[in-house]
Amino acid sequence: MEKLVVIDGNSILNRAFYGIMGSNMLQTADGTYTNAVYGFLTIMFKLVEDLQPKYMAVAFDLKAPTKRHEMYKEYKGTRHGMPDELASQMPIIKEVLAAMNIAVLTKEGYEADDILGTLSRFGEDNGLEVVLLTGDRDSFQLATEKTVIRIPRTKQGKTETENFDREKIIETYGVDPKALIEVKGLMGDSSDNIPGVPRSWRKNSFKFN
Fold first, then answer.
1. Distance of CA 69 to CAs 14, 63, 66, 109, Å?
2. Mean confidence (pLDDT) of the chain
3. Pick from 190, 186, 184: which is nearest to 74 by CA?
């Protein structure tokens, strides 16, 4: 079966940046930081070598507020801004991807996560095996028999990946991937500054006979 690979650009670039940071980050002769670009391409090339996909795209977030910010203005309100050393590498990786004829996808009001979800369903509907490469476990809700989530781990310049399909999600979390949407809504998510349902309310409101 032909494969479609979609990469969460912000997530993987961020992981590459911190995974290959060390005491002295990689730089060009003119002082341009390149550790995130190098790490990103290393991860991507390994993925291509392993999977030999027919189609590939990389999705990125935009700075503009998303529809989630419109619904909840404190969404991601506790996150720190991107370090300058990483931000300066964002246009570089996009330029490199364009030179390699790899589609770079963004959409105003949406996150890279949303693009991954859209393309995963599009790929399935068109008979493709879909692989999503991201460090964001929120993407686990997208796992099916045809869509696999790959989570990379980079340490000392070496990257390993762990695959999560529908069966592994059920084995790990005890629920179907789609149910993770409700689980996260109840629990909240500190990384996105989503409070969830208060424990006291949950305890007093749910009664079973």
1. 22, 12, 5, 9
2. 85
3. 190
* CATH assignment of the domain containing 85: 3.40.50.1010
pTM: 0.83
Q: Do the domain assignments include residue 68?
A: yes
The label of the residue with tokens 């996105």 reads: 192
Q: Is 1 part of a structural domain of the chain? A: no
Domain residues for the domain of 37 are: 6-205
Q: Which two tokens stand for residue 73?
A: 């203005």
Half-sphere exposure of 201 (CA within 13 A, CB side): 6
- What would the pLDDT profile of 63-89 be if each residue is shown by its tens digit? 766 666 566 565 565 566 788 999 999
Residue 76 phi, psi (nearest 5): 60, 25
140: amino acid identity, one letter: F
Cα–Cα dist 8/141, whole Å: 15
What is the per-residue pLDDT for 177?
Answer: 93
Assigned token pair, 64: 């503009």
Number of domains present in the structure of the chain? 1
